Every structure is written in structure tokens, then in C-alpha cells.
């Protein structure tokens, strides 16, 4: 959520309605106690496109940002960006007509057909930038974030377009907004989490502030109330904000939303109670004290909505902290069909947490599981009413583990179990070849 936009919203609501920050979330989201978060599904790419159109969000062409950097310019506000074009004559911001032409294949890939220089299909990549505002008037006065964005994002090619959401340039900002622009801003604000939690968006985290060696005297175009418009302002006259990204409450909320994905790599989204505790421990900062409860409530609702609709979950490269977070988060995934944790060394509590998800398919290959771990996994799966597949290849499973799997197989005759043990002596009637599977035909 853009920092200046949040300030403005708080000021407007407090002035007109005398609301506290803890009430703002209900006000901007719905007339009841809960936000209407489900207006835009967080899995369906078509719903994302519809949201972008409804709120008239201006996605920025990556090539436009490259041209800004190469000429020493800075990111403009949305109002000014609307009139900008690239060197090739394209609008700096993606047109609604282009969004309407985006096609989505059965696995969610987006593309668009272009005619120049000859008709061909171009893959569309949509990414969101989560960042700290380094001054109230302009988020990136030194252009450091601009440079980082260009380095992070995949390059534009003849077969790939990259469209970016960056709040300052994508949303109509404070100062001289028309009534219609205010309505579009409000629409975007109501569903801001969609731009970070949607499955079809890749989120780039800019968690580093501009290094001192990057800073130089200069001016930046910023809105001035006194001048009644955008003017050149000396950088040293801006209202600077040097609080680190990781200590900003709204930034942390965006970071958590970005982790709400089918594929988890090295990080796991925190359930609400854990997020609250971490916020307290880290002493996260807010422009207004009351915003803390607004962030907590919104994080809880977005987390709950996304995990309850997640059918597949794949986690890799999880360290001890991430595994502990996974244990806390998994009970909220109430409708999983498949869970894959291959390659993570699972402590017993994590193995049990995975087995307790009541999924249809479990994959725990190369997880360092031993006999005792397999026994507790089996104890959990005996109560799983829809399990059909269990893959435990390349674990350290011995006689006791195999015996437990045999009992599980007897209790669930249709269950497919794949252990793929290395060549060893036969144990308990099983031939432990390089690939041993217990199927309905072989495990009796």
C-alpha cells in the first residue's frame, strides 16, 4: 500500500467522520465488520485482469522504466505518466484495450497478439513491486529503486512483454485528482492485496533503501500544495523517511501477501497469530499508531482467504525458521489436494503437520525421514479420509517403517505407496530393489 496514499486516506476519513485508524479498514472495505475480499478471486488470472480494468490501474512497461533510467529521469506520478510514451511511440502505461486482449491458456499463462512488425504472440509477464517510500513527496528521489527494478525483472524481448505495478506511477496520487480519479483510487485501495497475493503476479521485494554512495544533490518533480501542481523540488527539501523496509508495517503486510503462493521457496506465509507476535517483537513502525490494527486485520483476512482456496502446495529450500512457520500455517490449509515437500529435511513435528493436512496426495521424498517419523506419519494418515497417494522415496526407512506402511496399506487397500528404497537385503517380505513400490497388487 502506498505510504502517502494511506496518510491521505486516514486524514480524510478522520476529518470527515472522526474515525479511529482501527475503524478505517471496515470503512474502506465494506459496511460490515469484514472486508469483502472475495470480489476478485486470487487464483484466476482473468479475475486479476478484471480488477486492473475496473480500478483503471496503470501497469508500466518495463522498457519505459529503462528509458527513464538511461536519461536520468525519475518515476512520474500516475497523473503525469498517463501522457508519457516510449521511444517506440507506445504509451508508457498499458492501455485498457491491451488488457482486454490478453489471452490466458489452461495453465494460466498470459499472452497477447501483436501485429508489428508482423503478427505474432507475445508472452505477458505481470509483476508487482513492493517497496518503501523514501520521502513523503516521492518514493524514489535518487532513482535507486528504478535501477533495482530493471536489474530484477526479466528483460523485454520480441516474444515477452513485462508490465509492472508500482503504486506511485500506477495509481492516481494526491494532488489535483479529478473526482473520477479519486473513485479509481478508492477501487484500487479496497482490493490492494490482490496486487501482491494473486497467484498470477510475481512480486519483487525492494527491501534496501538507497545507499549513501548513490545519493547526490538534485531535484525531483513532486506535487506542491503551495504551487498547486507538480514542480521541481530539491531533494534535500523532501520529507525524508529512512525507516528500513523490514520495519514498516504495511511493507511487511505486502511481503506476507507475496508469500501466499502455491509454490513456496525458502519462505512461508505467517498465520495471523504468528504475524501479530512477530510485529510486536520487531517493533514495526506505522505512520499512524492506529494503522497497526488495520494491518493486522487485513493480513488475517487475506491469509485466510488465500489458504482456504489453495488446492496444491509445494515447498522447497525451507530452513528451520520456515519449517516452524509451515507447521503453524498448515492447519489453515483446509482444502488441500496435494502437498509436496520433497528435499526439505523434515523434523518430526513438520512431518506430522504435513500428514495432518488431510490431502489426497503426499510427497515427502528425500526428507531425511526415519522409522520413527514414518510411524507417526502413518498414525496421522490412518485418520485421513481422502488419501490416495504417499511418496516416500529416498528416505532412511528400515524394518519398523516398512511394517508401519504395511499396516497403513492394509487399512487403506487402494492407497498407492512409493518408497523406492536402495538395494539392500530383503526386509519383512519386501524385496528392496532400487525402486520398490507398494501398490494394491504388490503390497499385500
Top keywords for this entry?
single chain, 444 residues, alpha/beta, Leucine-rich repeat, LRR (right-handed beta-alpha superhelix), 2 domains, seven-stranded mixed β-sheet, 15 strands, 36% helix, LRR_dom_sf
Describe the fold and architecture.
The chain has 444 residues and is α/β, with parallel strands linked by helices. The protein folds into two domains: 3-243, no CATH class; 314-438, Leucine-rich repeat, LRR (right-handed beta-alpha superhelix) (Alpha-Beta Horseshoe), CATH 3.80.10. 36% of the residues lie in helices and 15% in strands. It is built from 17 helices and 15 strands. The protein has helices spanning 3-17, 21-29, 45-54, 62-70, 78-81, 96-100, 144-152, 167-170, 179-190, 194-197, 249-258, 272-282, 291-308, 320-329, 348-355, 371-381, 399-411, and strands at 60-61, 103-104, 110-114, 120-131, 160-165, 202-206, 219-224, 229-234, 263-265, 312-316, 338-340, 361-363, 389-391, 416-418, 437-438. Strands 9-10-11-12-13-14-15 form a seven-stranded mixed β-sheet. Helix 11 (249-258) runs parallel beside helix 13 (291-308), helix 14 (320-329) runs parallel beside helix 15 (348-355) and helix 16 packs parallel to helix 17 (399-411). InterPro entries: LRR_dom_sf (IPR032675).
Amino acid at each position: 500500500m502506498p505510504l502517502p496514499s494511506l496518510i491521505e486516506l486516514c486524514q480524510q476519513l478522520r476529518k470527515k467522520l472522526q474515525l479511529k485508524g482501527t475503524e478505517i479498514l471496515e470503512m474502506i472495505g465494506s459496511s460490515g465488520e469484514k472486508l469483502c475480499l472475495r470480489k476478485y478471486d486470487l487464483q484466476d488470472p482473468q479475475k486479476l485482469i478484471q480488477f486492473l480494468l475496473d480500478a483503471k490501474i496503470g501497469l508500466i512497461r518495463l522498457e519505459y522504466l529503462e528509458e527513464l533510467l538511461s536519461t536520468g529521469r525519475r518515476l512520474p506520478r500516475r497523473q503525469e505518466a498517463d501522457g508519457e510514451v516510449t521511444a517506440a511511440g507506445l504509451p508508457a502505461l498499458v492501455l485498457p484495450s491491451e488488457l482486454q486482449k490478453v489471452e490466458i491458456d489452461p495453465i494460466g499463462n498470459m499472452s497477447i497478439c501483436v501485429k508489428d512488425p508482423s503478427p505474432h504472440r507475445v508472452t505477458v509477464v505481470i509483476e508487482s513491486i513492493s517497496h518503501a517510500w523514501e520521502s513523503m513527496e516521492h518514493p524514489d528521489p535518487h532513482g535507486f529503486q528504478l535501477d533495482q527494478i530493471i536489474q530484477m525483472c526479466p528483460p523485454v524481448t520480441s516474444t515477452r512483454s513485462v508490465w509492472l505495478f508500482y503504486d506511485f506511477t500506477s495509481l492516481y496520487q494526491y494532488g489535483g485528482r479529478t473526482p473520477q480519479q479519486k473513485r479509481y483510487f478508492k477501487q484500487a485501495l479496497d482490493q490492494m492485496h490482490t496486487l501482491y497475493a494473486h497467484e498470477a503476479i510475481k512480486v519483487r521485494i525492494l527491501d534496501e533503501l538507497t545507499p549513501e554512495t548513490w545519493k547526490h544533490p538534485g531535484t525531483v518533480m513532486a506535487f506542491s500544495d503551495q504551487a498547486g501542481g507538480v514542480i521541481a523540488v530539491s531533494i534535500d527539501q523532501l520529507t525524508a523517511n529512512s525507516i528500513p523496509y523490514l520495519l514498516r508495517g504495511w511493507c511487511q503486510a505486502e511481503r506476507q501477501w507475496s508469500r501466499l503462493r502455491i509454490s513456496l521457496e525458502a519462505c512461508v506465509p505467517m498465520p495471523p497469530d504468528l504475524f501479530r507476535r512477530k510485529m510486536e517483537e520487531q517493533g514495526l513502525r506505522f505512520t499512524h499508531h492506529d494503522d497497526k490494527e488495520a494491518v493486522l486485520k487485513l493480513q488475517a483476512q487475506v491469509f485466510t482467504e488465500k489458504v482456504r482456496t489453495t488446492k496444491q502446495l509445494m515447498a522447497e529450500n525451507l530452513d528451520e525458521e520456515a519449517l516452524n512457520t509451515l507447521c503453524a500455517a498448515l492447519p489453515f490449509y483446509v482444502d488441500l489436494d496435494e502437498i509436496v515437500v520433497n528435499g526439505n529435511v523434515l523434523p518430526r513435528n513438520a512431518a506430522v503437520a504435513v500428514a495432518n493436512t488431510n490431502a489426497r496426495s503426499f510427497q515427502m521424498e528425500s526428507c531425511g525421514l526415519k522409522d520413527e517419523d514414518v510411524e507417526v506419519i502413518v498414525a496421522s494418515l490412518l485418520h485421513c479420509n481422502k488419501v490416495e497417494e504417499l511418496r516416500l522415496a529416498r528416505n532412511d526407512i528400515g524394518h519398523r517403517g516398512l511394517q508401519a506402511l504395511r499396516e497403513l496399506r492394509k487399512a487403506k487397500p487402494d492407497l498407492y505407496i512409493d518408497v523406492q528404497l536402495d538395494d539392500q537385503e530383503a526386509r519383512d517380505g519386501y524385496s528392496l530393489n532400487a525402486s520398490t513400490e507398494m501398490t494394491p497388487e504388490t503390497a499385500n
